[in-house]
């Protein structure tokens, strides 16, 4: 079985064999406040817990590096709110990475809350090797921010984005749409005008057991669909291109790290609740996915869940994530990697979906059309059922 994954590597990343992962994700679960829509593993900070977290993270980094060490191309600190760590704590975290993989990478992203940095702190981030900020703006309208439980005002959020852009960081900012009463076009235009190179736009989703779910908050499906189409229309006027369902970038500003996920590259993950995808010596498998336990069990050194990916599992995963992107799925490369004739396996389904105008196929690339993007869930379900 071949494990050559040139086509699993994102555009702009060197296309070499991957004996070791080239991407690293670190989950920092601490937040200054808990947003009512968020279902990520997160919590309010207190000093003893942060201290224990950093010590355990350094231990995990050593263990994972001994098993999967190699040259990294991307590092992503997500959460939670990584920028909520104090300077000394953030430095301690990155030192743990420098002592193992090293922190000199092509792209080093830090997720940041607008209220957690100023110009002085941006200089500190740069000294640590951070090259890209992903800022949780969510809206440029105070009433929407209040509804979403955000603590910053529109003015504070935009000021944070502006100083990050002026400091010459690569900057991505998040927006949430489909909020009742939101002027989505205004949010999009205001953010695009700041000069950010990347915008991630997510329709509000009510996840089970979140405060929004318990309050019975609902999302208008018509506004959700309208805002999705509006997003591409507005952002394209500012030079952005949608390259994944929720991701829009100017030229050369696409997230290298996220493309690792979408196109099947291996990546290591550290921290409570973090999920990674790593190679395995078992030639009957493509790799294995692991999910760390939540913080109490993670601090105790307990193992999390492990899912072994068979070639068929991997084909299904790549169809699920690859069809979300404009790049699509290279069926020939996927067949080479898995030793499964993907086109032959799904030829009848692909032919039907192409005839319906939901997919396009120009060998070797399979892509979702604009109409197909709006029906991705049933399309992916059909592939799983046809397997």
Structural description of this entry:
By secondary structure, this protein is α/β, with parallel strands linked by helices. Helix content is 39%, strand content 20%. The protein has a nine-stranded mixed beta sheet, with helices on both faces. Helix 1 (47-68) packs parallel to helix 2 and helix 13 (342-355) runs antiparallel to helix 15 (376-386).
The beta-strand count equals 17
Report strand %.
15-25%
Give the helix proportion (percent range). 25-40%
Largest sheet: 9 strands, mixed
Helix segment count? 15
Determine the N-to-C terminus distance: 20 Å
Unreliable stretches:
1-18
In short, what is this structure?
This protein is 39% helix and 20% strand. By secondary structure, the chain is an alpha/beta fold.
Offer a few descriptive terms.
nine-stranded mixed β-sheet; 387 residues; 15 helices; alpha/beta; three-stranded antiparallel β-sheet; disordered N terminus; single chain
Could you outline the blueprint of secondary structure elements for this entry?
Blueprint: E1 23-28, E2 30-31, E3 43-44, H1 47-68, E4 74-79, H2 87-98, E5 107-112, H3 119-127, E6 132-138, H4 142-147, H5 154-166, E7 170-177, H6 184-192, E8 198-203, H7 211-214, H8 221-236, E9 241-244, E10 247-249, H9 256-262, E11 267-270, E12 275-278, E13 287-291, H10 295-299, E14 305-309, H11 311-322, E15 329-330, H12 331-338, H13 342-355, E16 359-362, E17 365-368, H14 370-373, H15 376-386
Parallel strand pairs: 1-4, 1-11, 2-3, 4-5, 5-6, 6-7, 7-8
Antiparallel strand pairs: 8-10, 9-10, 12-13, 13-14, 15-17, 16-17
Helix pairs in contact: 1-2, 6-8, 11-12, 13-15
């Amino acid at each position: 079985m071949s494990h050559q994954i040139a086509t699993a590597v994102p555009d702009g990343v060197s296309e070499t064999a991957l004996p070791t992962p080239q991407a690293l994700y670190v989950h920092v679960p601490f937040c200054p406040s808990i947003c009512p829509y968020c279902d990520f593993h997160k919590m309010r900070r207190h000093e003893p817990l942060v201290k224990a977290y950093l010590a355990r993270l350094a231990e995990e980094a050593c263990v994972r590096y001994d098993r999967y060490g190699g040259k990294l191309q991307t590092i992503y600190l997500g959460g939670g709110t990584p920028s909520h760590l104090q300077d000394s704590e953030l430095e301690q975290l990155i030192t743990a990475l420098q002592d193992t993989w090293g922190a000199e990478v092509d792209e080093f992203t830090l997720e940041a809350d607008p209220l957690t940095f100023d110009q002085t702190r941006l200089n500190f981030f740069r000294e640590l090797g951070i090259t890209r900020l992903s800022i949780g703006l969510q809206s440029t309208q105070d009433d929407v921010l209040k509804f979403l439980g955000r603590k910053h005002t529109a003015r504070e959020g935009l000021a944070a984005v502006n100083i990050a852009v002026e400091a010459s960081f690569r900057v991505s900012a998040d927006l949430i749409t489909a909020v009742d009463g939101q002027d989505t076009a205004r949010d999009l235009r205001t953010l695009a005008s700041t000069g950010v190179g990347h915008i991630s736009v997510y329709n509000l989703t009510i996840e089970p057991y979140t405060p929004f779910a318990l309050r019975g908050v609902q999302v208008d499906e018509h506004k959700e669909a309208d805002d999705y189409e509006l997003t591409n229309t507005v952002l394209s006027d500012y030079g952005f291109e949608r390259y994944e369902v929720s991701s829009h970038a100017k030229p050369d500003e696409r997230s290298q790290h996220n493309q690792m996920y979408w196109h099947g590259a291996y990546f290591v993950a550290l921290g409570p609740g973090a999920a990674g995808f790593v190679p395995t010596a078992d030639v009957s498998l493509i790799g294995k996915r692991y999910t760390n336990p939540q913080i109490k069990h993670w601090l105790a050194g307990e193992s999390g869940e492990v899912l072994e990916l068979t070639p068929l599992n991997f084909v299904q995963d790549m169809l699920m994530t690859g069809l979300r992107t404009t790049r699509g799925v290279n069926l020939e490369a996927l067949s080479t990697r898995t030793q499964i004739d993907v086109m032959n396996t799904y030829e009848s389904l692909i032919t039907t979906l192409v005839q319906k105008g939901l997919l396009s196929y120009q060998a070797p690339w399979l892509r979702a059309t604009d109409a197909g993007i709006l029906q991705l869930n049933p399309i992916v379900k059909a592939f799983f059922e046809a397997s």
